[in-house]
Amino acid sequence: MLCKSLARFSCRFTGFVRKDFHVSVNPLCRATKENDNTNCVSTVSKSKPPRILITGGLGQLGTECAKLLRRNYGNENVILSDIIKPTEENLENGPFIFADILDFKGLQKIVVDCRIDWLIHFSALLSAVGEQNVPLAVRVNIEGMHNVIELAKQYKLRIFIPSTIGAFGPDSPRNPTPNVTVQRPRTIYGVSKVHAELLGEYYHHRFGLDFRCLRFPGVISGDPPGGGTTDYAVAVFHEGLLNKKYECYLEPHTMLPMIYIEDCLSALFQFLNTPEELLRRRVYNVTAMSFTPEELFNELLKYIPDLKITYKPDKRQLIAESWPQVFDDSEARRDWGWQHKYDLQRLVESMMRDVNTNFLSKHQLKQINS
Ligand code: AKB
């Protein structure tokens, strides 16, 4: 299947019937409180779709992001890449390619051969796992980012690099945390993200690079995240449904900003399609809600009444306590019409459905087979 898929994938895109449209933000749609952002991203123009490379594509955001972009730009125009071996499922909807972000020449070859226009750079070690291997985090999060930003400059790519609530630290105002304020994070993850924000802004002003960056809160998705401080809010669905118990590594009252993956990706999509002239900044806070572990578990108890929660705080508690509690994303709402759809109730309802259908049934099937 892998060989078949790679063989099917031609970087020259010969024989591909390209959808001749491009979804973009309506430039007339200045954000107001009343605006419905679904109207803002519906202008259809007759231009060719961008060809997009996603690095770190097999992490929490990559495959879902690829699905969204492929629906809008055509399957063959969105190339997932990673150094991890893909599953059959990863290869189902479009091209996958090996790409090591530490190999500059290799990246150059992909951009040239595949005629890439946009780069979405997801490769990164998250907050908790970064603290366990700082040299590796420096290589991946800082050296890797140097490579992709230089690449984007050389080939005039639009580049999106996500940042995070982790780009703030104990000196930052935590409730609310505005777009521009003191940062000074205390994790290598946060330090690398502030570095990416500043370097991207610098490359934009110095070289005209089309750098775009959203600071995401904890992202809740059916796919498991890898090594973050906000992971509890995903893990509890998996373990809760499977074992009816969960041991939480954060204190019950630790409030953090969060977003459901569907909102996260629609923010990304909308932001990527916002015309330059509407962007007053290159880096924006986005969020949907803030909650504590206790608030999330209480909502979950409505679906799993026999769920048993215990608390055993570890080092991640310190990280969480240095991060924003409430994220102020009013500038994104004002400049390009950002609006979230999912609050805590809708998020839990949707996660229950997703984890039940996509993970629990597969897990049960595996157990029966073994
Ligand atoms: C983490 O917890 O490290 C990430 C993040 C908030 O950036 N989920």
From TrEMBL:
Molecular function via GO: L-threonine 3-dehydrogenase activity
Family to which this protein belongs: Belongs to the NAD(P)-dependent epimerase/dehydratase family.
E.C. no: 1.1.1.103
Domain NAD-dependent epimerase/dehydratase: 52-286
Catalysis performed (reactions): L-threonine + NAD(+) = (2S)-2-amino-3-oxobutanoate + NADH + H(+)
Task performed by this protein: Catalyzes the NAD(+)-dependent oxidation of L-threonine to 2-amino-3-ketobutyrate, mediating L-threonine catabolism.
PANTHER family membership: L-THREONINE 3-DEHYDROGENASE, L-THREONINE 3-DEHYDROGENASE, MITOCHONDRIAL
Entries under Gene3D superfamilies matching the protein: NAD(P)-binding Rossmann-like Domain (3.40.50.720)
Pathway(s) of this molecule: Amino-acid degradation; L-threonine degradation via oxydo-reductase pathway; glycine from L-threonine: step 1/2
Entry protein name: L-threonine 3-dehydrogenase, mitochondrial
Listed InterPro entries: Epimerase_deHydtase, NAD(P)-bd_dom_sf, NAD(P)_epim/dehydratase
GO biological process: L-threonine catabolic process
Top EC class of this enzyme: oxidoreductase
